[in-house]
Structures are given as structure tokens and as C-alpha cells.
Amino acid sequence: MSEITNNPAVEGHVGHDVHESHAHHHGHDDHGHHHKESFITKYIFSQDHKMIAKQFLITGMFMGLVGMMLSIFFRLQLGWPGQPMPILETFLGKWAPDGVLDPNFYLAAVTIHGTILVFMVLTAGLSGTFSNLLIPLQLGARDMASPFLNMLSYWFFFLSSLLMLMSLFVETGPASAGWTIYPPLSALPEASPGSGLGMTLWLFSIIAFIVSVLMGGLNYITTVMNLRTKGMSMTRMPLTVWAFLITAILGLLSFPVLLGAGLLLLFDRSMGTSFYLSDIYVSGQALEQTGGSPVLYQHLFWFLGHPEVYIILLPSLGITSEVLAVNARKPIFGYRAMIGSMLAIAFLSFIVWGHHMYVTGMDPLLGSVFTFTTLLIAIPSAIKAFNYITTLWKGNIVFTPGMLFAIGVVSLFITGGLTGIILADSALDVNLHHTYFVVAHFHIVMGVASMFGTFAGVYHWFPKMFGRMMNKKLGYLHFWVTLISAYGVFFPMHYMGLAGVPRRYYQNFEFFSGFSDLNAVISVFAIIGGLVQFVFVFNFFYSMFKGPKAPKNPWNASTLEWTTPVEHIHGNWPGDIPTVHRWPYDYSLPNGEERDFVPQDEPLSEKEKVAEHAH
Amino acid sequence: MLLNLILLAVVLLAIVTSARLLMVFQFAAELRGKKAHEISDSENNMNALLTLVSLVGLFSMFFYLTATYYNEKYIPGAASEHGVEVDSLLNLNFYVITLAFFITQILLMWFAYKYRYNKNRRATHYAHNDKLEMIWTVIPAIVMAVLVLKGLIVWNHTTNPDPDKNTLNLELYARQFDWTARYSGADNNLGKASYTMINQGNILGLISADAISEQLSIVRADSLLADSTVTNGFLPAEKLDQEKTRLRRLIHQIRTVVAFDYAFKSGSETYAASHDDVLVRDTIIIPVNRPVKLHMRSQDVIHSAYLPHFRVHMYCVPGSETYFAFKPITTTKEMKAKLNDPDFEYRLYCNNICGATHFNMMLPVRVVSEKEYAAWLASKKTFAEETKTRLAQLGLKTNFVNNN
Fold it and tell me: Considering the entire predicted model, what is its pTM?
């Protein structure tokens, strides 16, 4: 490239300019040969959004494996209650004497599995990776608004993961009150050994996590608002970026409430306050605390907890929109309706938290209100599902592994979303609350669907992240086995729930006639599903070092990230940042060209200009 | 240990071998001029076909599981009045979502198969259609409106049953890890209780004149003991702190119990309602066709009273009382005959995680005729009688005179 050509006056974005020329200045220096980066600044304390994305991804993957292993451990107990499994003793030592899982550790495994998957994997691992990677690349920015804050965001996440892992090694065991840690169980070490040091570490871990989410979210929002390249209006942003933006706003508005809830719990645990405690008699003593309400905690928790579901799901849906459009070689159907439904879902997610609390003794009138608001969510969700399906209609579908996972997301989103209609209904939720029906519902719609979205993203943007291709064949194997085992694990659980089998039971399934066999089948699927994830991990690390070199735009996609060179440079584009002339979904235009996509930075043709004027 | 090492070695070897194999395949593909990012026709066709296979698989699983598990054997029809309404609402919902499930999954998988890549075809650039989008906004909206309305009607019936003077007041008291049922006795009125009144004999912390004498004697003795332990101070620092906390708690406890005592002696409270209450810890017996109002309390953490056959579920929250009213309509005997299962019992489960043996916190519930119920209840000792016995053991005088 020539010398600095990025003239702020030409760029024409006020507010963009100062940062842009500054970042560009750096970018220019960095990719040159003068300014050498040390190993530490490049790989560890990196401020480059692409490296931070990879850090989030790999940490998230590691945590995901830990969470998955925990689930396999408790599935072994549930499938074959009380039978000695030597492998449990190998991994867990004193928590599985003679290979039989200790009931306290069973609850701890359930708790930490949920916490890790919800927060460390599907919040940080998903948003942290793809918001970081794609927001600047797809908007034509050289980096995040604050690369330093971005780096801190990762390191707080790292600290949070570390604290959570540490809690697994505490003598009294990790937190074991369920991932929702309802007090008083979580407040009283007398009531459960896991509520001792394990719970303290859990709370500190989550506090660090919230700090990380807030720093990340502020950055994402600021970047989207201020650092879009010339021509990148809000309605020309890819749906991925829209999803990340809305997710970040949700997180910013809801996570602080969890921080409040956690702090009050810490006070109750250590300072004798009674925010959540009242009239408790435990281990032979009547506590002094009176006047608090454990239900208050649940209100605070679910005020985060429900938006959190969409914090997990929306990025995945955004990724799905992008991957479906690229590989169906069609524009996403109903772009504006997709944005509108995401905004509607996000708004509604703040006024539905009470549907987790129909049977807490909450006023039945409130229950009616929450039933109404919750069922409203079905409408934007239906729009999204139908728009995805229509995107495939008359497409020319290329089955990349990413595309398969994206189609999987739509299938799971529908299957899991539909049972939400039942659980949203207070009258029906009474009998299904805390049963396996709920476990099936949320695992399919937010757990597995979001996990599939993450996989779709990894397969699709792996060439962008590492400049190499992942192995397709292993990708197909990974997809099909995961799909089968995901449905195999969670679909039968609906029926157990309908028969009233409570979740978080360690054994005693014989009271619900004949689900012991089904439980074993579920466990077999879980183990197969777990094992095949190692194929993915292998493929990931193998391809990172030895995979075939990727071309610049392997999927013929039209978004800006594919205009950057394969080799990463700090600042993303070696020359000027591209100018955007069109929306991101100009696939298969009927323009008589052989090429079936037009990149966003390509100026309008004469014909298109005429058409534009005609509008 | 040796076995583990061998296992580890095998795993490592497998990883290295797979990596080597993959490199060979990759090299071979490159030689044949295949590009890693291009999906071949055979790969496309295979995956397209597999989407159809998975559709068939998904529906087969649905039909198999529904046929096997969605029936009376596994999910017996509701045994309560509101439960029948709940069940029919559930069925309506299932028709709707099953239909939606079939339509959308078929369209999704069929389109994926039908429009698989063909190099001679170009996708149709079809970005939006307002009319179509309006249709799939309005239809779900109408369906949801119907479901919400129906749901709210059932919810109202469930939470606001018609008042009935005959309603039986029954308390379910939860603690780690068992249940106690308290019957309100002849006056159908549950006596007052306080957590500071709890001791080994009076686990629900019921208040009566006798219970107050008993508790004062116990707590005073405990606090004297704790006080002497603390003042003598031959304890390690941590134990001493624990003992101090205990003493503080005991003093707080004495204050409240003395207040109850004062209220009784000054005549402002009689605490008589608890006298005829009956405590049961093995089996809950309730009469058929008579409304039962459950009053729920908890001693320590949140528990949840779950009676799936009656479609009843409510948290037991320490520090407050929760309620659920229902009317059992099928006796245990009838249910045994209906399910052809002589061992059948209704059950009360704890359904909110409450600690190590949460899974074991359950109690059989038996629905019997009014006559059987009355005879059974009459055979039980009342709270006042039980307290009197314990008081005698402590060598204390009773205030209670049995009218019978």
C-alpha cells in the first residue's frame, strides 16, 4: 500500500475519524516490519480483536469439555444408578468411592455443568468469540472501540473460569445448589457442604464473569454505533452484527442485576444480613435472621436469567442467518422482519422472568400477566423460523459442515421452542415445573441449538480465524452423530417430564414406572454425543496447524470480513478500509453474471443505479 | 494405575495416528486437484439425502415414544378436579404444537433436500414478501390468543376455586429431608407456629401453653450451657466463635419464646388452635371429593411440594406460607383398579433441589372415603397429647386439660 491514504475527510464519519486515523496509524506500523510484537503481546496480552476472539474460543472450548465431562459423569449415575463405574473413581477420586458417585457431588456436577455451559461456554465462548471476531471485520473497522478494555474483558473471563475450576478442588466440594443457586440452600453451609467455600468461589467467579461481560458489551455496542465504515448504515449490517449488538444490550441491562443478587447473597452468607433469609432453623439452631425473602432472590436472578436465554440464543440465530444465506446462495428472507423480531424478542425477554416462578407462591394475577407476555414471544419466534425455512426455498444449497449445523439450529429452535408454548402457560407449568420436560425444553432450544450455532460459526469462520480449512469429512461425522445424539438424549426426556419425573434426582426413578430403561438409553446417547466432540476438538487443533491453506473467500460470501487478507494483520486491511455500497445479501442476483454473489464493497453497476433511482 | 497409563498411551497413539492418516488423505486430495473448501456433488447429495433420513428418523422417534410412553400407564389421568381441566388444556396445546412441529420440520428438511446444489441452476433472489410475512405473523398471533385465553381460564379455576365451607385445612411441612403433614383437627384450624419454638419433639414449632413451657426449659438449659462454655473459654478460637454465635442465637430465641409466654399469660393469646392438630409423618390420608387447602411451610431451605397425580405443585418457602387448593376425585383403590397395579400409591415428592438426599424426600398419599378418613384421624394422637407426654418426661406440669 501507499502511505497513509485513509484521509478522515474522505471517510466522512465524525467520531469515526479520530479513532480511525489513530488505529490506522497503528495498523500500518504493526503489519510492517518495523514494529515487532513479542510473544506476550501477540498471543497472551493481545489487544487485537481477532486474537482475543481466538482466546475466548479456546478457553470456551476447554470449559465446554469440562462441563461435558461432568454431564457424562452424572449421566452414568442416572443411567445405571448405584452401579460401580471405575472410570468415575479415576476422575473424581473421593467423590466417587468405589466408582459410585457421591450424592453431594452429583448435585455439584449438575450445578457446575449448568454454570459452565450457560456462562462460560454459551455466553463467553459464543458471544466473546464471534462478537470479537466479526463486529470489526464485518463493519469495516480496524479494531474494537477500546482494544484495551477488550483485552481486560478476556482476562476477567479467564479469571472467572479459573475460579470456577478451582472450586472443583475444594475439600467440601464445589457449589451444589443448582446453577440457579437459590438461597437459603446456597446461603447456609449447614444445609449443604457445597455452600461453603465452593459457593464463595462460585460467587467470585460469577462476579468476575459479569465484569467481563460488561466490558465486552460496552465495547461491542460502542463499536457498532461508531466504527462502521463509510456506507455501512445500520440496515446494511449483516444479521450477525445485529444479533451481537442486541445481545450486548441485553447483557448490559441484565447482568448488573445478577451482580446485585450475588452481592446480597454474599452479605447474607458472611455479614449476617437477611435479604433472603427468614425464620430458618438449621442444624439444631434457630437463626436470628428474619424478614428476608428467598423469593426476592429468584426475582433478581431471573431478571437476568431470562434475558440470558436470549443472550445465549441470539448470537447463534445471527450466525445461522448468515451461514444459511451464504450457503443457500440466497438473501436471507425478510431481513427487516428478522431485525424486528430480534428486537421484539429482546424487549419481551425483560418482562417474562416470572414464568420461572409460577409455583413460588407468587400472586396468581402476576402469573397471568407473565403467561400473556411469555406467549407473545412465540410470534417473533415463529416469524424467524418461517423466514429461515423460506431462505432455503429455491436456494442452491451447499452442504458445508457449517451449513449443516445452521440447518440443525433451525430444526432444534423449532422443536425446543414449541414446548416453550406449554411451559409458558402457568396452568400447565404447575405440573411440569422442575421436571425433565423443562430439562428437555431448554436443552434443545437454548443449549443444543446455541451449541450448534457455535459450531456453525466455528466451521464457517475457521478459515478467517486460522487461514486454514477444517476437514469436511470429520465435520460431517461430527454433525450427524451430534444431531442424532442430541435428539436421542433430549427428546425422550419430554415423556419422562410428562410422567412427573423431577429433575436433579440422584436415583429413585422406579417410582415412575419403567423409566429406568429409557434413562439408560439416554445415557448411551449422551456418551456417544460426548465422545464425538473429541473428533471436533481433534479436527480443530489438527486443522489449525496442518489443515489445507484457505483461500481469501472460501465460501464466496459477500460480507466484508472476506475482503481482508488471509494472513492476519493488526488493523485488518492493509490499505484503505473498504467502503460499502450495498446490503450484505446480494446473492444470485438476476444480473446475467456467472458469479452468484456481489461483495458489499463493490459499487453499484449502472443498471442497479438506475433501479435505485426508480425506487 | 498401570491400566490408566496404558489407556493414556493408547489414546495418545490414536491421536497421532489419526493426524498422520489425515495428512495422507489431505495430500492425496491435493494431488487429485481437489480443493478443501469446495463441496463435491457426491458430498452434497449424501448430506441432502441424510437430511431426509433424519426427518424420517425424527418422526419415527416421535411416534415410537408417543405410542409407548404417552398413555395411562406412564401418565395416569389427573386425580383432581382442576387436573382434568389441565389435562384437556395440555392435549389442546399438544395438538397445536405437534401440527406446527410436523409442518415446519417437513418444510425445512424437504427444502434442504430438494434445493441441494446443482451447478446448472441459480438460486432465486427472493428477499422478502410482505404478504407472506404478514400471514405467518397473524396466524401464530391468533393461535396464541386462543391458547392464552384458554390457559388463563384454567389458571383462574386452579388458583381461585369456589369457596367451600367444607374445605380441609392441611399443612405440608418440609425440612431436610422429610415431610410432616399436619391436620387441623376438629376445629379445622391450624394452630400458630414459630421457628423459634422448634425442638426435637416439636419439629413444626407449634405454639401452645405446654409447648412454651417445654421450649423455655430446653432453651434456657441450652443457653446456660453455652454461656458457661464460652466464659470458661477452653476452646480453640474457631470453636469459640461457633459457640458464641450459638449463644447469641439462643438468646434471640429465648426472647421470642418469652414473648409467646407473655402473650399467653396476659390472656391476649390462648394458642388453643394447635391442641387438636394431628401430626403425621408416614402416610398422608385425605378424603375423596372434599376440597383440600394445602398450607405449605419449610424449616430450612426451599422445598417444593409436588403431587403429580393431582397436578399440584407449590414451593415451601422458609419465612412465609404458600397455599394450593385442590379436590381429589379418585380414591387410591379406584386408581389401583384403573391402572391394574395393586402397588399403586399417590406420592408427594420434593421437587426443588434441597441438598444431598433431595431425591429421597417423598411420602405416600392415600385418597380414601370420608368414613375411612374420619376413623383413621380419630385413631391419631393430637399435638396436645403428644406434648403432654413429653412434658411429663421433663418433669414439668401441664396446662392442658383433655376435654374428651
Answer: 0.93
